[in-house]
Amino acid sequence: MSVPCVAVERERGEAVRERLAELGLLDGDHEIAVDGDAIYIPVVDPEAVPADLDARTVEHDAAERERPRTPAEILGYDPSLERLGDIVIVDEDDDERASEIADAVMASDVPCETVLNRASPIEGELRVRRWDVLAGNGTETVHREYGHEFLLNVAEVYFSPRLATERHRVIEQVEPGEDVVDMFAGVGPYAVPAATRGADVVACDLNERAVAYLRENAARNGVADRVTPIAGDVRELVGGAGEDATDTADRLVMNLPHSADEFLDTAVALAGDDCAVHYYDIQHEEDPFGPGTRAIRDAAAGEYDVTVETERIVRSYAPHEYNVCLDARLTRV
User: Fold this and answer.
1) Which one of 11, 183, 264, 314 has the fewest CB atoms closer than 10 angstroms to its CB?
2) Residues 254-284: pLDDT tens digits?
3) CB of 162 within 8 A of CB of 82?
4) Residue 262 CB-density burial (10 A; 0-12 exposed, 13-18 middle, 19+ buried)
5) Positive or negative torsion for Cα 89, 94, 97, 103
6) What CATH number does the domain containing 326 carry?
7) Domain housing 36
8) Distance, CA of 178 to CA of 202 (rounded, Å)
9) Are residues 219 and 261 in the same domain?
């Protein structure tokens, strides 16, 4: 079948394909064709191909791409699934339906080693949950996110792949040379990328297993020299073993939405003269940002001017409730 393609010499093929993918112009229904020294990359809109690619748009024969067999095609309905590394997570109360979905996932072309079903809500101070293993036999995996790798065990630590976009938004604000304190760091999805951008990061968590994974993840991403993992309550940083972090932070990450307000006095004590605070909260839809704003202003009163630079709804959390983030700037008075 003849379809619109970008024709380019073979040595430039991968670079051009990546650029077309970034622009959303790749035609995923057809295969890339090779003919002699040229590569023909199918595109959905030849007129949108930018001139700076220095490539011709032509009609060329391209085979139809074979689509992977999906769980939905096997089941006849579209199940709710979540990917975390090579683990697929379902959320089903019906054991028979959960088992049916797990069988379909394992029979499909989805890359998967284990299928898990949530067996409890998030529980306890360490924010972990219990799981039913429906297929496979492990709860440890490597999750990849915006060029970083995170080793973790979902039965031992809290981790949400749904927050990847939000984490990336925050990380893009980090500048080289910043002193960052991640107050509830988990396995390092904020701390490690911040260090990659050139920040020096102090990363705390109560969960000793999470901190062990954090240490491993800093090493596997090449930033062990920029991340200081601390197992324990972040409040101990103030006048304690991590007292060097007191009064010096350029950026604070407070991703503990149910109770971050209880740690605002600590955040103020850790903040330097000009400090960005990423404060996560769960609030009712009628006033999602007001309680957090008031709490930050009350904690900083007399020491800092507070400017709320961004009010962001991260996701729906429950009926009429949102998980939100406030990006606030503390400026010492």
Assistant:
1) 11
2) 999 999 999 999 999 999 999 999 999 999 9
3) yes
4) exposed
5) positive
6) 3.40.50.150
7) 2-61
8) 11
9) yes
pLDDT at 244 over 80: no
Inter-residue contact 145 to 126 (CB < 8 Å) = no
Query: 243: which 2 tokens?
Result: 């007292």
B/e letters for 285-311, b = 16+ CB within 10 Å, e = fewer, are: eeebbebbbebbeebbeeebebebeee
> What pLDDT does 111 receive?
87
User: Considering only CA atoms, which of 230, 118, 63 is closest in space to residue 238?
Assistant: 230
Q: How many domains does the chain have?
A: 3
Q: How far apart are CA 171 and CA 296, in angstroms?
A: 21
Residue 147 falls inside a structural domain:
no
Cα(274)–Cα(112) distance, integer angstroms: 45
Give dist(CA 147, CA 141) in Å, integer: 16
Task: Return the closest-CA partner of residue 116 out of 135, 141, 142, 129.
Answer: 135
* Contact residues for 44 (Cβ-Cβ < 8 A; gap 6+): 4, 24, 25, 26, 27
Tens digit of pLDDT for each residue in 117-163? 999 988 888 889 999 999 998 899 999 999 999 999 999 999 999 99
Q: Give the span between the Cα atoms of 264 and 277, in whole angstroms.
A: 10
Q: Are residues 300 and 189 both part of a single domain?
A: yes
What would the mean pLDDT of 179-199 be, rounded to a whole number? 98
Cite the beta strand spans of the chain per DSSP E.
Answer: 2-9, 33-35, 38-42, 56-61, 81-84, 87-90, 114-118, 131-135, 140-145, 148-153, 179-182, 200-205, 227-231, 249-254, 271-284, 304-318, 321-332
Decide: 84 and 140 in contact? Cβ < 8 Å.
Answer: no
For residue 220, give the amino acid letter. R
